[in-house]
Amino acid sequence: MFSCVGYAATAADASLGPIALDRRDPGPEDVQIDIMYCGVCHSDLHQARNEWHNTIFPCVPGHEIVGRVTRVGPSVTRFRAGELVGVGCMVDSCRECSSCRAGFEQYCEVGFVGTYNGEDRQGRGITFGGYSRAIVVDQAFVLKVPEKLDPAAVAPLLCAGITTYSPLRHWKVGPGQRVGIVGLGGLGHMGVKFARAFGAEVVLFTTSASKVADGLRLGAHEVVLSKDPEAMAKERGRFDFILDAVAADHDINAYLDLLRRDGTLVQVGAPENPLPVSVFSLLMKRRNFSGSLIGGIPETQEMLDFCGEHGITADIEMIRMDEIETAYARMLRSDVKYRFVIDMATMPETA
Ligand code: NAP
Ligand code: ZN
Ligand code: ZN
């Protein structure tokens, strides 16, 4: 066991602050990582505030982790000290069910172990995430990070990246398709970049007039202000695929109506409350409404390699650890451009 400092929420209504954590020494299959950067996902905020009603306190969020390997267990073959690595939303799963065997650990039939707020499968307690100086993770859940990319801007790929890459790949988004991305936050801006890289005609839907120019710069061919009813009406029935990355309550039927016959809307945003769906929006054009959860470990590695080849990273705003509450408040106002990343060198030395 070794001690390290993290930043935790101790209750849904408490500000995050420093906490002393015990991390296990690396077991045979484990990799110990010095965390350099950790992205700030809206899921961190949902969990810290217990908006999904399953948070175990104290909660140390953070599942967009990039750092360097400092120690490895004796059976570790894939990593060595000094290597640049990443950890995303999962640190374990059953590894035996059909989903795990197919590389879809996120859909593990007994449930994957989350990087934070997850119950360790070996009885070692509740997991603590990347808002900390170090983490120890089984090598099977550690990713290789291309050295040529900016490591701080890679961190958000570990969740926002894979969560948008995976459904765009699964539904085979590509040339000849008109694709909508809803919400220009952490996930949405990666969705725009990937949909463009895959060759689709990309339309961004945003509630923020201030993000139009950025939407075009990030790769959208067109930007529609979703609060403008006339602009929305012009888009009805024109889309093959829409990815909805909105974190709050909104009218999902307004987007279902934009799909063509047999078009698909995939929900990745996870608002606290249910989103009412009008069945008429679905049955009139045999439309599909689906969801998608992050991505498996093999696909996450594929995504990182793709980003390495194509020079794709997140657009980030670096923050100090003690600025996390301000970052959360700005995220709630949709004031994100387009992912906050914590510089872990700013973590206090002691709790
Ligand atoms: P984020 O950076 O806060 O971005 C969310 C964006 O949604 C905002 O920037 C805003 O974009 C738009 N938005 C916010 N409030 C809205 C409202 N009332 N109506 C319409 N649009 C609104 O959040 P994120 O980190 O990208 O996460 C987005 C959601 O995905 C969260 O719920 C998160 O928990 C979830 N998530 C799911 C998965 C998964 O596996 N499925 C993985 C990670 C995260 P505009 O300003 O452009 O309108
Ligand atoms: Zn996330
Ligand atoms: Zn499994």
UniProtKB/TrEMBL annotation:
It comes from the Bacteria. Its EC number is 1.1.1.2. InterPro entries: ADH-like_C, ADH-like_N, ADH_Zn_CS, CAD-like, D-isomer_DH_CS1, ER, GroES-like_sf, NAD(P)-bd_dom_sf. PROSITE patterns: ADH_ZINC, D_2_HYDROXYACID_DH_1. GO terms for molecular function: alcohol dehydrogenase (NADP+) activity; zinc ion binding. It is an enzyme of class 1 (oxidoreductase). Keywords: Metal-binding, Oxidoreductase, Zinc. Residues 11-342 form the Enoyl reductase (ER) domain. Its cofactor is Zn(2+). Belongs to the zinc-containing alcohol dehydrogenase family. This is NADP-dependent alcohol dehydrogenase C 2. It comes from Komagataeibacter saccharivorans. The gene is adhC2.
